[in-house]
Specification:
The chain has 852 residues and is of the alpha+beta class. It contains 26 helices and 31 strands. The protein binds tryptophan and zinc ion. The site of zinc ion (ZN) has 4 residues, from helix 3.
Length: 852
C-alpha cells in the first residue's frame, strides 16, 4: 500500500461503526487473475453510534457493480474504500468486485501459493477481498460459496453443501472479517477425531500438499493435546463440528487463527524426525496450541480495535507457554522464554521502536505485531496471576469468558474482571499497558546480625522514551527466597508487592545471614541490579531451589566474566568455570537444564548490557570475547564433555519429547565445544550417522563454523534439495555459522543460488534474517552488512511490505554503536527512506528508527 501522507490512527479517537451487520453472504468464482467476489451484506443502523457515515474499506479492488436493496448505486470510490448514500433503516448491500490473487505478492487478502488459493486477513487484509467495514468490532455470521476447479474448497465453520467444483460453508459464530478464511487447491488431508468434554465429536483435518502427508502426525497430536489441555485447565470446549488446519508455503508469519480454519506457514506445522529439529517440534507444538487457544481468547472474545491487540495475543502467548510448561519442563521453558524476552523485547523497549503493550497510535497496524505486544503482554498476565494468586486468576478467567463471550472487548474489560473477582484496585497495575520501557530494579541489602533482620531496599526506575517520556512507578511482584549458608531454604518464597519508586521489605527471625534469591522465576520483566558478591552468586548457582534463579546466577557470572574480557582483557573467570564443572556432572539435573547452563549471553545481549552500562559496544570485541570464553570452556571441560557426550547420546528410536530432546541439546552443546579442541572427527561422525535432523544439523553447523563444512554442505544440499523447509536450514546455517568477515559475502553468494526464491518469506528470512542476527557479521566495521541488507529490503518492499517492514528492525539498535557505524547506517536509512514508492509499512518503521 503506497501512501504519500501516512495517516496516524489514535486509540483516543475510537468511535463505533454506524451500522451493524446482521449477515454476510460471499460467493467466490476463483480465477488466478480474475477472481470475482460477490457480497450480500445485511446492514442496519447501529443505535449506539453517533456517526452514521457509510464507509466501507476496500483496497486494490475493481468494482464491477453495487446495489442497495436491489437497485444499482454508484458509490464514491477512493484508494482506501467507498462511501454511498444509504437508507435510514435496515438495507441489503450487494457488490461484485474483481481481484487478482496471482499478482498478490504481499500475501495479504486472497493470494496464490504453489497453485493453491489462500487468504490472510488479519489485521486489515479483508478489505483486499471485498468492500466491508474491516474492523474487529463489526461482527457477523458468514455464509461462503466457492466455485472453482479444485478438489478441496474450504472456508470457516461447517460445510453445508459440497459438489464438484463447488462448496458452501456456514459459520454460525459471529466474527470480525479478520477471521475470515478461504482455501482452494489440490490438497490431501491427514484426518483424526476428537471427543470434547461434553461428548461432541469433532472432525480434525490437517491439509497439506501431496508429498507432505508424512509430516502431519506430530501436528495432529499437538492439536489434540491442545484441545484436551484447554478443557482441563481453562474449561474451554471447542464449538464447531470441524477443525481444519492448512499448511501454506508462502506466509508472512507463523500461523493464523481463522475460525475453524487455521492457516499455517508450513514451517510452523510440518514435521518429521528426518527433516525437523527438536526445536522445530517444540515450536510447532506451541504454535498449534497458540492458534487453537485463540478460538476462545481472540475469536469468541475478540478485540474492540487493534490497539487492544495484546488482549488476545498477550493472553494467548501466556496460555501457550503454560501449555508448553505442562507438556515439557517448566523451568526449561521459563528460562528459554526469558532468554527470548531479553534478546527481542528488551532491545525493542530500549530503542526507538519502544511502545506500550497497548500502543496509543499507529500508522500501519502490521508493524505492531511485536515482541512487546506478544511477549511483554504475556509477562503482564503472568504478573497479574502472581499478584492475585492461582485461584483468583481461575475465577477471573471464568468471569471473563462468561461476561464477554461474543464481545469485542478492551483491556479495561479484562482488568475489570480481575477487579470484580478480587476487589483489588488495578489502576496502578494498568500502567503496564500504557507505559513503554523496561523498568530497572535496583536492590541493596542491610543485615542486622544482632536482631537477625535482613532488609531489602528496592528502587525502581524506567528510562524515559519517546513513547513514555515521564514514566511513573509500576506495580512489581518480586518473588524472593532466602538461601541459608548450608544451601537450604530459610523460608518459603515470598511475593513482595512493590508499588512505590523506593520501598523496603523486612525479613526477620533469621539466625544467620542468608543469601537473597531475588526475582525468582523472573517474576517481573525488569532489569535487576543487585550488587551480589561472586561468592553469593556461586552459592545460588550451587543451591538455589528456584531453577530459574539458579540458572540466572550462572548467567550473571558468565556475563560478568565476558564483560571483564571485553573491557579489561581478563581471562575467563575460573571460579565460575569451576562451579559450572560441578553442575555439568550433577546427574540429578535435567540434561536440558545443563545444556542451558553451557550457553552464554548472545552477542546482542552483551551489546545491550554494555550500552546500558554506558559503554559503546564493539561487535568485533564481543565476538572475540565469546570465542575466547568458548575456547576456555572447551579446554577446561574437555574430559567432562566427552563423558557427557557418551553418556547422554540417545540411541533409542527418535522421539521429539522433552526428555530425548534435552539429551540431544546437551550432547550437541558438548559436540560444539569438543570440536574446538579435538578437531572435526566427532562432528563428521555424528553428521554421517545421524538418523534425525537435530543431530545432523547440529553437526553440520559445528563443521561449518570450524571451517570443515564444505563436503557436508554439498552432501546436505544433494540430499535435501527437494525439501523446501530443510533447504531453508541449509541457506540459513551458512550465514549464521560464517565468520564475521565472511557473513555478508556468504549471504550475497547465496542470493545467486538457483533456489534463492526471494519472494518466499521463509527463504528470504533464512538468508537475511540470519545475516541480521549475526551480530558481528551484520555490524562488520566495513558497513557491508548494512548495505547488503538495505539493498535487498528495497528489492522486497514493493513485493511484500509486511515482511520488509518487520525486517527493518535489524537497524533498531543503531544508536548504540560508534559514530562510524552510525554514520554508515544513517546513509542506508536515508537511502531507503528516499526510495520512490516506499510502502507505508516500511516507511513507518524506517522513520521511527531514523528519528532516534
Ligand atoms: N494472529 C496471528 C497469531 O498471533 C498473527 C498474525 C497477525 C498473522 N497478522 C498476521 C499471521 C499476518 C500471519 C500473517 O497467531
Ligand atoms: Zn496469536
Amino acid at each position: 500500500m503506497r501512501d504519500a501522507t501516512p495517516q496516524t490512527i489514535y486509540l483516543s479517537d475510537y468511535q463505533p461503526f454506524g451500522y451493524l451487520v446482521d449477515e454476510v453472504a460471499l460467493t467466490f468464482d476463483l480465477d488466478p487473475h480474475q477472481t470475482r467476489v460477490k457480497s450480500r451484506i445485511a446492514f442496519r443502523p447501529n443505535p449506539d453510534a453517533a456517526d452514521s457515515r457509510f464507509f466501507l474499506h476496500g483496497e486494490d479492488l475493481k468494482l464491477i457493480s453495487a446495489q442497495i436493496d436491489g437497485r444499482s448505486v454508484t458509490p464514491e470510490v477512493t484508494e482506501t474504500g467507498l462511501t454511498c448514500d444509504v437508507p435510514d433503516g435496515p438495507f441489503i448491500w450487494e457488490a461484485e468486485v474483481e481481484i487478482d490473487p496471482k499478482r498478490n505478492t504481499a500475501l495479504e487478502g486472497l493470494y496464490m501459493s504453489n497453485g493453491m488459493y489462500c487468504t490472510q486477513c488479519e489485521a486489515e487484509g479483508f478489505r483486499k477481498i471485498t468492500y466491508y467495514p474491516d474492523r474487529p468490532d463489526v461482527m457477523s455470521v458468514f455464509t461462503v460459496t466457492i466455485n472453482g476447479p479444485h478438489p478441496v474448497l474450504l472456508s470457516n465453520g461447517n460445510p453445508v453443501a459440497q459438489g464438484p467444483n463447488h462448496a458452501e460453508w456456514h459459520d454460525p459464530w459471529p466474527k470480525p472479517a479478520y477471521l475470515f478464511a478461504l482455501v482452494a487447491g489440490d490438497l490431501v488431508a491427514h484426518s483424526d477425531r476428537f471427543t470434547t468434554m461434553s461428548g461432541r465429536e469433532v472432525d480434525l483435518n490437517l491439509y497439506v500438499r501431496p508429498g507432505d502427508e508424512g509430516k502431519c502426525a506430530f501436528g495432529m497430536e499437538a492439536l489434540k493435546a491442545s484441545m484436551k489441555w484447554d478443557e482441563e485447565v481453562y474449561g474451554r470446549e471447542y464449538d464447531l463440528d470441524l477443525f481444519n488446519i492448512v499448511a501454506v508455503d508462502d506466509f508472512n508469519m507463523g500461523a493464523m487463527e481463522n475460525k475453524g480454519l487455521n492457516i499455517f506457514n508450513s514451517a510452523a506445522v510440518l514435521a518429521s524426525p528426518e527433516t525437523s529439529t527438536d526445536d522445530n517440534f517444540e515450536r510447532i507444538e506451541a504454535i498449534i496450541a497458540h492458534e487453537y487457544f485463540h478460538n476462545w481468547t481472540g475469536n469468541r472474545i475478540t478485540c474492540r480495535d487493534w490497539f487492544q491487540l495484546c488482549l488476545k495475543e498477550g493472553l494467548t502467548v501466556y496460555r501457550d507457554s503454560q501449555f508448553t510448561s505442562d507438556m515439557r519442563s517448566a523451568p526449561v521453558k521459563r528460562i528459554s522464554d526469558v532468554i527470548d524476552l531479553r534478546s527481542r523485547q528488551f532491545a525493542e523497549d530500549q530503542g526507538p521502536l519502544a511502545h506500550p503493550v497497548r500502543p496509543e497510535s499507529f500508522q500501519e497496524i502490521n508493524n505492531f505485531y511485536t515482541a512487546t505486544v506478544y511477549e511483554k503482554g504475556a509477562e503482564v498476565i503472568g504478573m497479574l496471576k502472581t499478584l492475585v494468586g492461582d485461584e483468583a486468576y481461575a475465577k477471573a478467567l471464568d468471569l471473563y469468558f462468561e461476561r464477554h463471550d461474543g464481545d469485542a472487548a478492551t483491556i479495561e474489560d479484562w482488568l475489570k474482571v480481575f477487579e470484580d473477582t478480587t476487589g483489588r484496585d488495578l489502576t496502578q497495575f494498568k500502567r503496564w499497558y500504557s507505559q513503554a520501557g523496561t523498568p530497572h530494579l535496583a536492590v541493596t541489602e542491610a543485615w542486622d546480625a544482632g536482631k537477625g533482620v535482613l532488609t531489602l531496599s528496592f528502587t525502581q526506575h524506567t528510562p524515559p522514551s519517546v513513547a513514555t517520556p515521564d514514566p511513573a512507578p509500576q506495580v512489581l511482584p518480586i518473588a524472593v527466597g532466602l538461601v541459608g549458608p548450608d544451601g537450604s531454604e530459610v523460608a518459603p518464597t515470598r511475593i513482595l508487592e512493590m508499588t512505590e519508586a523506593q520501598q523496603s521489605f523486612v525479613f526477620d527471625g533469621l539466625d544467620e545471614r542468608p543469601v537473597a534469591s531475588i526475582l525468582r522465576g523472573f517474576s517481573a520483566p525488569v532489569v535487576l541490579e543487585h550488587d551480589q558478591s561472586k561468592q553469593e552468586r556461586l552459592h545460588l548457582l550451587a543451591h538455589d531451589s528456584d531453577a530459574f534463579n539458579r540458572w540466572e546466577a550462572g548467567r550473571t557470572l558468565a556475563r560478568q566474566s565476558l564483560l571483564d574480557t571485553i573491557l579489561l582483557s581478563s581471562a575467563p573467570d575460573a571460579a565460575w568455570l569451576d562451579a559450572l564443572d560441578l553442575l555439568l556432572t550433577d546427574e540429578t539435573l535435567e540434561p536440558a537444564f545443563r545444556a542451558l547452563m553451557l550457553g552464554l549471553p548472545s552477542h546482542a545481549e552483551l551489546a545491550s548490557t554494555l550500552h546500558t552500562k554506558g559503554h559503546t559496544p564493539d561487535p568485533a570485541a564481543i565476538h572475540e570475547a565469546i570465542e575466547t570464553t568458548r575456547d576456555a570452556m572447551a579446554h577446561r571441560f574437555a574430559d567432562v564433555l566427552g563423558q557427557l557426550y557418551a553418556r547422554h547420546m540417545v540411541d533409542a528410536p527418535y522421539r521429539p519429547d522433552a526428555e530425548q530432546s534435552g539429551k540431544r541439546a546437551l550432547t550437541n552443546a558438548a559436540l560444539s565445544l569438543l570440536t574446538r579442541v579435538q578437531g572435526p572427527d566427532r562432528a563428521e561422525g555424528q553428521y554421517a550417522q545421524a538418523d534425525n535432523m537435530t543431530q545432523q544439523l547440529s553437526a553440520l553447523g559445528t563443521l561449518v563454523r570450524t571451517g570443515h563444512g564444505d563436503k557436508a554442505l554439498s552432501d546436505f544440499e544433494t540430499r535435501w534439495q527437494n525439501d523446501r523447509l530443510v533447504m531453508d536450514k541449509w541457506f540459513g546455517l551458512q550465514v549464521s555459522q560464517a565468520s564475521p568477515d565472511d557473513a555478508t559475502e556468504v549471504a550475497q553468494r547465496l542470493t545467486e543460488h538457483a533456489d534463492f526464491n526471494w519472494k518466499n518469506p521463509n527463504r528470504f528470512r533464512a538468508v537475511f534474517g540470519s545475516l541480521a542476527m549475526h551480530h558481528a557479521g551484520f555490524h562488520h566495521v566495513s558497513g557491508k552488512g548494512y548495505t547488503l541488507l538495505a539493498e535487498w529490503l528495497m528489492r522486497l518492499d514493493p513485493v511484500n511490505p509486511q515482511t520488509t517492514a518487520r525486517m527493518c528492525s535489524a537497524f533498531q539498535t543503531w544508536r548504540r554503536y560508534d559514530a562510524a557505524r552510525q554514520a554508515k547506517i544513517e546513509v542506508e536509512l536515508d537511502r531507503m527512506l528516499a526510495q520512490p514508492g516506499l510502502s507505508r509499512d516500511t516507511r513507518e518503521m524506517l522513520s521511527r528508527i531514523r528519528e532516534a
